[in-house]
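Q: what sequence does this backbone want?
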């Protein structure tokens, strides 16, 4: 009688290590491919002009300099030509910060409020209205530019308009026109609704039995439980508002109200050969989005991972 041959199964730990190793081998080169251009941009912003266009690229500056940042921010000694061009207007970045933060706060609140109604409230036509909200995600943003322009142009009692919305410019060339069209997002409502569906209804019913109103339940129970999804929505919103270029370009005409993307675009047109200034300005414009993601990355990943727990 032959002895039974037994094979030792592979341990789960060994299988997990191999999976991680394979993932790193695939994702490592992809990460380098995406990070390399930005890494070189940061390096080039500290290099003098001659070193930037050297035949051999320098990833680490031989003689680091802050002249690009000083020139862009109007710090230090500038040439007469640079002084006349008004380099580094901080107003672009303060405008972008104000608009992006305002849109992020308002949109996160209103998205959560709408998502709560669709997820936990019962009313006639709820599902049909939600489907209509989702259908708007299939409409390209470019299609709504002209309707939105006409609407904010004819807002009553603003910008010289009468009660019929005629006679003035409404919200054109104002912060209202930049902020108000972005206070609600169909994608954000969908994202938060999917997360709120995972909250037990029994928890809300217990709060109602204790006498809590709907807004109190929303504010004190639902919102604290949705912090990961709210962080994900806030990051998406802030990134979109900070990078928005076309809408501010269309409705804004005052130079002191330009946002960073539009201001940098005009800066590029005026300073096509000032590469050190352009690189420094690009790095400064990108930093807020990177910092926001670094601060909230844990909540962002958790919110994306748990959003589809319950359909």
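A:
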């Amino acid at each position: 009688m032959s002895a039974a041959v037994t094979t030792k199964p592979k341990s789960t730990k060994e299988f997990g290590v191999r999976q991680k190793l394979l993932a790193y081998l695939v994702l490592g080169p992809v990460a380098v491919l995406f990070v390399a251009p930005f890494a070189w941009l940061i390096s080039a912003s500290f290099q003098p002009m001659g070193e930037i266009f050297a035949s051999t690229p320098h990833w680490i500056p031989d003689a680091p300099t802050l002249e690009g940042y000083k020139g862009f921010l109007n710090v230090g000694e500038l040439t007469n030509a640079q002084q006349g061009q008004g380099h580094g207007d901080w107003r672009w970045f303060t405008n972008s910060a104000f608009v992006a933060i305002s849109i992020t706060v308002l949109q996160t609140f209103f998205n959560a409020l709408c998502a709560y109604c669709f997820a936990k409230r019962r009313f006639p036509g709820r599902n049909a209205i939600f489907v209509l909200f989702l259908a708007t995600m299939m409409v390209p943003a470019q299609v709504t530019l002209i309707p939105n322009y006409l609407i904010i142009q004819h807002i009553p009692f603003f910008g010289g308009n009468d009660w019929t919305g005629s006679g003035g410019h409404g919200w054109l060339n104002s912060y209202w026109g930049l902020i108000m069209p972005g206070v609600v997002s169909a994608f954000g409502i969908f994202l938060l609704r999917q997360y709120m569906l995972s909250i037990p209804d029994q928890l809300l019913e217990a709060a109602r039995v204790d006498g809590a109103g709907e807004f109190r339940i929303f504010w004190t129970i639902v919102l604290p439980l949705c912090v990961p999804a709210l962080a994900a929505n806030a990051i998406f919103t802030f990134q979109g508002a900070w990078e928005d270029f076309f809408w501010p370009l269309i409705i804004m005409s005052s130079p002191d109200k330009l946002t960073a993307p539009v201001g940098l675009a005009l800066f590029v047109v005026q300073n096509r050969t000032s590469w050190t200034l352009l690189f420094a300005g690009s790095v400064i414009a990108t930093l807020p989005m990177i910092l926001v993601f670094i601060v909230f990355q844990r909540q962002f990943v958790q919110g994306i991972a748990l959003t589809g727990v319950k359909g």
